Amino acid sequence: MSSWVLAMEDDLDEGKIKLVKISGKQILLIRKEGKVYAVDNECPHMGCPLKSGTLDGFVLKCGCHNWGFDIRTGENVDTGEYIDVPDPRVATYETQVSEGNISILL
Prior knowledge:
Layout: E1 3-8, E2 17-22, E3 25-32, E4 35-40, E5 54-56, E6 59-61, E7 68-70, E8 92-93, E9 95-98, E10 101-105
Antiparallel strand pairs: 1-10, 2-3, 3-4, 4-8, 5-6, 6-7, 9-10
C-alpha cells in the first residue's frame, strides 16, 4: 500500500468535488462535514465519470443514469433496482489530512 499526497486541504471546499489523477487512476476527493472522502471517478454501471454528477448529502449521483453512491462506503444506494451489475459499488480509499496536505492510501 502506498500513500500519495494529492491536494492541499485549502484547495478543497466543503461539499465540492475535486478530480485528481494518480497511477493512471482518476479519483474524486470530496469534503463533507469536515472530512475528506476519496472515491473512483468511474460509475460501475457504464463507466460514466462521476465527476459530472451531483452531491446530495453523502450521496454522489452519476450524471449519466442517476445511480447514487454513498461516498463514505461506496455502496450503491439504489441496489435492488439494478441487478444487471454484479458489484454495483464504487471503490473508496482511506484519506488522511496532515499539515494541510490531503493524502490517500492506495
